[in-house]
Design goal:
The complex is a heterodimer of chains A (about 500) and B (about 475).
Chain A: E1 3-14, H1 53-65, E2 73-74, E3 76-80, E4 90-94, E5 103-109, E6 112-125, E7 129-131, E8 145-147, E9 154-160, H2 167-183, E10 196-206, E11 216-221, H3 224-243, E12 251-256, E13 261-267, E14 277-278, E15 285-286, H4 289-296, H5 303-314, H6 318-324, H7 328-341, H8 344-362, H9 373-384, H10 390-403, H11 413-422, H12 431-444, H13 446-453, H14 458-470, H15 477-489
Parallel strand pairs in A: 11-12
Antiparallel strand pairs in A: 1-9, 1-10, 2-15, 3-4, 3-14, 5-6, 6-9, 7-8, 10-11, 12-13
Helix pairs in contact in A: 1-4, 2-3, 5-6, 6-8, 7-8, 7-9, 8-10, 9-11, 12-14, 12-15, 13-14, 14-15
Chain B: H1 6-14, H2 20-38, E1 41-43, H3 46-61, E2 72-76, H4 103-111, E3 114-119, H5 153-160, E4 166-171, H6 177-183, E5 186-189, E6 209-214, H7 217-227, E7 257-261, H8 271-286, E8 290-294, H9 302-317, H10 336-347, H11 350-363, H12 369-392, E9 395-399, H13 415-419, H14 426-431, E10 435-443, E11 446-454, H15 459-472
Helix pairs in contact in B: 2-3, 7-15, 9-11, 9-12
Classes of the chains: A alpha+beta (about 500), B alpha/beta (about 475).
Amino acid sequence: MEWEVVIGLETHTQLQTKTKIFSGASTAFGAEPNTQADVVSTALPGVLPVLNREAVNCAIKFGLAINAEIAPRSVFARKNYFYPDLPKGYQISQYELPIVGKGKLTIQVGDKEKIINITRAHLEEDAGKSSHDLKSGGAVEGMSGIDLNRAGTPLLEIVTEPDMRSAAEAVAYAKKLHELVQWIDICDGNMQEGSFRCDVNVSVRPKGSEKLGTRREIKNLNSFKFMTQAIEYETRWQIETLEDGGKIQQATVLFNPDTGETKSMRSKEEANDYRYFPDPDLLPLEVTEADKARVQATMPELPEAMKARFEAEYGLSRYDAALMTQSTAHAKYFEQTAKISNQPKLAANFLSGEIAALLNADNIDISNCPIPPENLAAVIGLVANQKISNKTAKDILPNLWKVVSGNFILSTYEGMLLHLTQMGAVQINDASAIEAIIDGVLAANQAMAEEFKAGKEKAFNALVGQAMKASKGKANPAQVNEILKKKLSS
Amino acid sequence: MINSSLKQFGQMLAKKEISSVEMTQTFLNRIQQYNPSINAFITLDADKTLAQAKLADARIAAGTAAPLTGIPIAQKDIFCAKGWRTTCGSKMLETFKAPYDAHVISQFDAEGAVNLGKTNMDEFAMGSSNETSFFGGVKNPWDFDRVPGGSSGGSAAAVAARLCAAATGTDTGGSIRQPASLCGFTGLKPTYGLVSRYGMIAFASSLDQAGPMAKSAEDCALMLDVMAGFDERDSTSLNRPKELYTRDLNMALKGLRIGLPREYFSEGLDANVAKVIEAAIAEYKKLGAEIVDISLPNSQLSIPVYYVLAPAEASSNLSRYDGVRYGHRAAQYDDLMDMYMKSRAEGFGAEVKRRILIGTYVLSAGYYDAYYLKAQQIRRLIADDFVQAFKKCDIIMGPTAPSTAFKAGEKADDPVAMYLQDVYTIATNLAGLPGMSIPAGFSNGLPVGLQIMGNYFDEARMLGVAHAYQQVTDWHQKAPEGIL
């Protein structure tokens, strides 16, 4: 039987607010445990939550970016369960009435585009962190530690419809969402620090079937690599289980990166009854048209719009435009380079080729690229004016990588030209200079010249090779060809 | 001196007839004398109290005194006060020292009032007799065999026995008014949202409201002036201009329409209590008020609705007492679940457990719609009854409690009989309306309270209505004999 996998995602994005969603405590990452746990974060008797409007603005911004409905009235509810890092014994979340309703996100898998429907996005507070291995932390062995610094950090939970049909699609969606939340500056996207965490619902069904299979939810995937591995393993496991005559039980599973396997944490029967009810400490959240307009005014040009503009304004292919808009940092770098050099296509080529490779090799983000746009623009300008060859440009970039930063001279066309001339990297386009080189080659290789004249075509290429070698590769190859041909036929 | 009004205490201090330290010491001496038998206070800290009195004296000397500067006020042990043990009447918080001040506490501190101590109360404010307190019951100063009412029983006994100049209370279903009725003094539960709940330990968040407990309407007005006001730390606090609650104390009652809800004078009401209430109404007629017959048809549903909603909220509010960060933790346990279960089993008393169980049940999957949601819908109907009633009248009056103070132990094993104590007070909590109780006479030597209910934000008028009565009667000046 042919099987089809059905995937939906729930993503927790930490919102970039300075203070917590219901208190004035700082949200900064990495502080000493419990130094950012105020009376509200520790849930002392008598404390009350006060909604941070900045978190609301982040949610509105996301809603607007995916063309979703923003609820004029949404409600915070309490999700009740006991856990030591959940200080109140309940999490304040949104349940029946979330702030962001249905929206859409377009993903690209290979050369195909697909629309993923977003069901909802709601605001909630994060829990604290439990550490169960405290041998090195100074605590008593066998005890667990609770850090409430993270408790109360604002989260936007973004839920999709079960629209994805492969691990590749799921990862493409997750990456696209990851890019978008950073693009609109509501989340720092740091997956290691847990700012962007995905729960993936996976089920399988016979291809062609309309009915959804029983799903299992893979919790807390914090890298795209693990997401791919987890979905692929889970899919195989479910298909094998069904083909062996087994049944899938609804369950929550964890992915173990060491074994590459998923394992059930708890089944549906063991699931909590969260006893949701509207939080009486908080009024319903009202969002007015004016609130939306204020947030809209802070909205940057969104990736889709920018992609279309790059195609129209810079003549980029759809593919290149997509690459240049993979993040705000990419787009910014590209536009600066394109504008200074006035060579958008070359800029896109270098950015997606050499620069991307170098960034990748050193594991650097483009926002920290050692070669600033001005310098790359200078190099590109030299290529465009045939001062250096494309190949030379590519060869010298790794050198510039090390020397360029902070060097003002190299941020201008003239400065870069001077530098590369001194390095002997500039192309020789002067016909008389090339003629002199060729004369020298012919004088030293008279036999070869005679062979060519006698009809041995291959000798010509050998002579060109000698001329290029004599010029240390700097002679303009087209001119070498032309002049050599002229000399030999005279 | 101890029978003085807050205004008189203030004048004595202003004229330097007595210092705040001396006044405070007088009350501390009385507490030392009577508290061992009455048990009105859970925590006393004479050093802290007298230090505040000294500061108040300096302020009085500097000429910057506010109306309540230097006056000793007892605080219900539900309000967190920095450095003070704050127990909420529970073993769970037996050793909890609050690291911050409730809004109410900081308001009194800013006023320069003196915190006399933390008063006894039913555990987590759940009770109508003060018998659920982990720190023991409180005696009714009028009859030591009887309960003072609850949950603000300690504050009530302290006011009645003149162990403080005035006290604070909180009222979720009648916890200020019922003890005011049973102990014979004036208590006011303001409109929901008028007094910030910040730092007030939550029982049922949508119903809890703090208010004054004092000898007279005038005293309550002065107290409310300090307590009320917007606080951004409580999202349900109402942002409205500050009022002066003494402003209508001398209003004329001519033409005032007093509504009497039929349902409040039917079966269940003690006949002697009914006579006292009728006499009080007659007094109001003499003062020029008109009497209007009104109906609150859904008020009979108040108790069932309340005992769904309040436990639902409480079951969630009390989840934080898990033994992890503060509060009682069992001495020995096997694992996390065992720690939770033992700590909570040991830390909470029977009534609190009963309400957590009820609340957990009504919020459970499959029961939520039938109980919680239905109760919310009826709550709306109960509030609508009042909207209709206030089209016909300006003020609603009736009994505060169905009977006078009952004997300790009498209802302790019958929760439903205990819950009926609040049959006349709960509806205003559900509707968010203000209500008060004033002394209106006696039945068999025990005080009877008249309940006055007003429209939203009508506290100033209610206080004026009460004050007019207290100008022509002296029930509010009666104090139990033998302890003065």
